[in-house]
C-alpha cells in the first residue's frame, strides 16, 4: 500500500495517548467530523477481523463530532468512517491516507 500523504507525527500524536497502555496496547482516540445533524458514526478498519467488515459504533461528543477510543497493539492500521450509513470520502479529518485495493483512500496510523 502506498502512503499518499507525508506521515504527520505531530497530528497522529494528537490521537495517541502514550501515557496509558493496556496489556502492551496503545490507546488511540479516533475523531470524525460530521455534518451537524448526523446521528450515527462508525469506524471500520484492519483492527477488526475480518478487516473492514464489522462496524464499531462511535459516541457522539457534540453536534459535528463523534469519537471512539480503542486500545491496539503496535502496528499499522487502516480505517474508514461511515456517517449516517454513508462512507465519509472527503478524508479531511487530519490523518494520513493510503490508497486501498478498491481505488479509494483509507486513513492510516502507525503505532
Layout: helices, strands, pairs:
Blueprint: H1 9-13, E1 16-21, E2 25-33, E3 41-45, E4 56-57, E5 59-62, E6 65-73, E7 76-83, E8 86-87, E9 96-99, E10 105-110
Describe the protein's architecture and organization.
The chain has one helix at residues 9-13, and strands at 16-21, 25-33, 41-45, 56-57, 59-62, 65-73, 76-83, 86-87, 96-99, 105-110. The radius of gyration is 13 Å and the shape is globular. The chain is mainly beta and 111 residues long. The two termini are 17 Å apart. Helices cover 5% and strands 50% of the residues. It has 1 helix and 10 strands. The longest helix is centred in the first third of the chain and has 5 residues, at 9-13. Strands 3, 4, 7, 8, 9 and 10 form a 6-stranded antiparallel β-sheet that branches. A hairpin with a 2-residue loop joins strand 7 (76-83) and strand 8 (86-87).
Mean pLDDT: 80
Strand content: over 45%
Head-to-tail CA distance between termini: 17 Å
- In DSSP terms, counting alpha (H) and pi (I) runs of 4 or more, how many helices? 1
Number of strands: 10
Q: Which H/E pattern describes the elements?
A: HEEEEEEEEEE
The level of helicity is under 10%
Label the structural class.
mainly beta
Q: Compute the CA-based radius of gyration.
A: 13 Å
The shape is: globular
Low-confidence stretches: 1-14
Largest sheet: 6 strands, antiparallel
Amino acid at each position: 500500500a502506498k502512503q499518499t500523504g507525508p506521515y504527520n507525527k505531530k497530528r497522529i500524536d494528537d490521537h495517541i495517548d502514550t501515557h496509558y497502555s493496556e496489556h502492551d496496547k496503545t490507546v488511540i482516540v479516533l475523531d470524525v467530523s460530521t455534518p451537524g445533524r448526523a446521528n450515527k458514526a462508525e469506524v471500520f478498519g484492519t483492527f477488526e477481523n475480518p478487516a473492514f467488515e464489522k462496524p464499531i459504533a462511535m459516541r457522539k461528543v457534540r453536534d459535528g463530532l463523534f469519537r471512539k477510543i480503542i486500545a491496539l497493539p503496535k502496528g499499522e492500521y487502516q480505517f474508514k468512517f461511515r456517517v449516517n450509513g454513508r462512507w465519509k470520502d472527503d478524508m479531511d479529518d487530519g490523518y494520513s491516507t493510503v490508497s486501498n485495493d478498491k481505488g479509494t483512500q483509507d486513513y492510516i496510523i502507525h503505532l
